[in-house]
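Try it yourself: sequence plus 6-hydroxymethylpterin-diphosphate, in.
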Amino acid sequence: MKLRCGDRWLNLDEPRVMGVLNLTPDSFSDGGQFLEPRLALERARQMVEEGAAIVDVGAESTRPGAEGVDEDAELKRLMPVLEQLCGELDAIISVDTNKPRVMREAIAAGAHLINDVRGFCSEEAVAAVADSDVATCVMHMRGEPRNMQKDPKYTEVVREIRGFLKERARELEAAGVDSERILLDPGFGFGKTQEHNLTLLRELGAFAASGYPVLVGMSRKSMIGRILDQPVDERVHGSVAAATLAAWLGASVVRAHDVAATLDALKVVAAVRSEADARGVA
Ligand code: HH2
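Structure, out:
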C-alpha cells in the first residue's frame, strides 16, 4: 500500500511513524515546549533523524477541554515554522488543522498532508483538499474538544465509527480526492470512554479491512495513563505497547511523541510479519 502526498509517495508496506510537533502553549503533552520557531525546527529535525516518515505540525490544541484559537492566531504560530520545514526536511510534512483557510495556506506553503480531527465534515474543508493533490487524514471525533468527554455514547462503537469514516472517505472521493490520498483514524480519546478506546484498539482490524490505510494516535494519552496510573511524561512504555498492538492489528501509521522508541517497536512487528509472510502463515 502507498499514500500519495502531493508530489511524493509514502510507502506503507511497513508501518510508519508520524512524529508530533505542537506549536501551542497548551497541548496536553508538549504544550509550551516548541513555541519558539528555532526550538520547533530542532525538534522536527530530531524526529526525522530518529526515523519519523511524517512530521505532524499543529498550532491548536484539541485536548479534552481545550478552547479553540482563531484562524489568524493559528496561522501566525504555524506558517513561519511550516515554511522552513517544507523547504528543508526530507519527510512528509503534515498539518493538523480543521480550518479550511489554514488548510489552503498550508498547502500553498508546501504541506504534503492535511490531518483534520473533524474528519473533513465541512464542505469548505473538503474543497480545500480537493483543489490540491495532498494526502488527507480523516479522523473521527464525537462533539467538540471542549465537551467531547462528557458522557460519550455509542450503540456499537466500532460499527458507528467505521461507518462514519467510510462515509467521509466516500464524500472526499466524490469531490475528487483519490482513494490513494486517504488515511482513516478512529480518533482515540476524542469523545470516547476508556472502554470505547480499548474496544477500538482490540478491533482495529475492522478498520484496517476497510481498504484504506489506518492511522492511530494513542501516544501519551490518558487511555494509557488510566491503565498504568502514570502522568503524561511517564507514558512512553505504555504508548509503545499500544503502538505495537495497533501495528500488529494493521495500523499503517502511528502518531507518536517518542519517535525512536515507537519505530523500534514497529520494526519488530514488521520483521515478525515478513517472516510469517515468507512462510505463508496467515
Ligand atoms: N491526537 C491529537 C491531535 N491530533 N490527529 C490524529 N489524526 N489522530 C490523533 O489521535 C490525534 C490527532 C492529540 O494529541 P496532541 O497533538 O499531542 O495534543 P493536543 O491536541 O493537546 O495538541
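One thing you can check immediately is this: The longest helix spans residues 259-279.
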